Amino acid sequence: MSTAHAVQNQNKLSVNDRKVAFATIIGTTIEWYDFFIYAAAAGLVFTQLFFAPAGQTLGTLLAFATVGLSFLFRPLGALLAGHFGDKIGRRTILVVTLICMGVSTALIGLLPTYDSIGLWAPVLLLSLRIIQGLSAGGEWGGAVLMAVEHAPTHKRGRFGSFPQIGVPLGLLLASAMFALMSGIIAPGDAFLEWGWRVPFLFSIVLLFVGHWIRKSVEESPVFEEIKERNAASKTPIIDLFKNHTWLVITAALVFAGNSAIGYMTTGGFIQNYTTNPEGSLALPRTAVLISVTVSAAVWLLFTWISGGLSDKIGRRNTYIIGFIIQLFGVLALFPLVNLGSIWSVSIALCFLSVGIGMTYGAQAAFYSELFPASIRFSGVSISYAIGAILGGAFSPLIASWLVSVTHSTSSVAFYLAMMTLIGLCATLILRDRSGIPLGPEYEELQNESAFYSGKKKSTNLYRNKV
């Protein structure tokens, strides 16, 4: 029996399986902590410190533009990571992306502001943000494949939720750090003077922890078998787009429908909208950060729930339920937020996070089962990166622009509802492939169309072909 086949059919978790689960959670949490503290800082301090001459409105748009611009470099990171991840392994790429993300984040914490060096301040800030984007583009694909390809067949959704949990955990940690600095350690002017830098510099500690953990886990058994069989693609990117272009686009739209809504909080828009002293709400900064932290915990919980649920009812059905809940969350978001109470903001964000979590937990297993083994790293990474651009990249910028033009949040709600419906429609196009074998010996089976034909094929059909 092949290594991959043995792993897929085991019923008990080995010590290494548990280590992989722990490593994917910790590693992804650290990566996304780094990514989210930038987004939080963009909504809270970068307008004043790096874009002050542009004024409040334009400065806010420029700060959010730097958040979105980094997403444009995610596909390049995904292309590089996918190419080398399919050729030299998942684990090596994960270590490289972690180091790049950690170092660039710490350097942001050391940057002089516009008052010190003028235009060089935003230029250096943007350069480091681009490195973050490249790293994030390669991180996700490697993390989910390490988790899913190590998993028993009947627990892929649960294992795949481990790296997904790292995203809300990263948001929770980032929001908690900013709340701690803003409310206790460096309140008031001290936060703008030096307090905002501490969360960035803390990344150095996390970097050493994450590097040690990721170096300790074994390579994916599926990739080990690819090496044994000499089945690695020589041109994984070319092979991917030659045979699976429409699949990449459709999978990207699924994530776009999720990420556009998720980046309302992770991208800093809600933080900026609710705390802006020139706005109608002007809520306390620390209280809003605590609300975001609580909503991240809700997101985490429902990501965990949906991962396990997808092992029972399928990835596609779990997504459909999630997008429906997400749509209701979007429609309720601004009517609750605009009540102007920190409690109504908290309820709105938590309700929204239920839908986000339900559409997020099954994603790793769903994506991994869509693509053949030899190009899987490229497929999941590039689909994810394109989806991030179409959905989350500029959603805070678009939302801020819509508010500035229409002077109403109704237009933002309409935009988010449309993105949710796009994600739902893309999900309906794809077939559920839960349980399909992942090893390279089943490449022909994996190459079958993943598009939903209107006649749903059961998981047993795939298993009967093995």
Mean pLDDT comes to 83
Number of strands: 0
Determine the number of helices (DSSP H or I, runs of at least 4 residues). Answer: 23
**Uncertain segments:** 1-11, 455-466
Structural class: mainly alpha
Percent of residues in β-strands:
under 5%
Radius of gyration: 21 Å
Shape: globular
Distance between the termini: 13 Å
Helix content: over 70%
Order of helices and strands: HHHHHHHHHHHHHHHHHHHHHHH
Largest sheet: none
Structural account:
This protein is an all-alpha fold. Helix content is 78%, strand content 0%. It contains 23 helices and no strands. The two termini are 13 Å apart.
Produce a short descriptive summary.
Helices cover 78% and strands 0% of the residues. With 466 residues, it is an all-alpha fold. Mean pLDDT is 83; it is low at 1-11 and 455-466.
Question: What are the key terms here?
Answer:
single chain, 23 helices
Give the arrangement of secondary structure elements.
Layout: H1 3-9, H2 15-49, H3 56-69, H4 74-88, H5 90-108, H6 114-117, H7 120-150, H8 156-185, H9 189-195, H10 197-201, H11 203-215, H12 221-228, H13 236-266, H14 269-275, H15 285-313, H16 315-337, H17 342-358, H18 363-368, H19 376-393, H20 395-406, H21 410-429, H22 443-446, H23 459-465
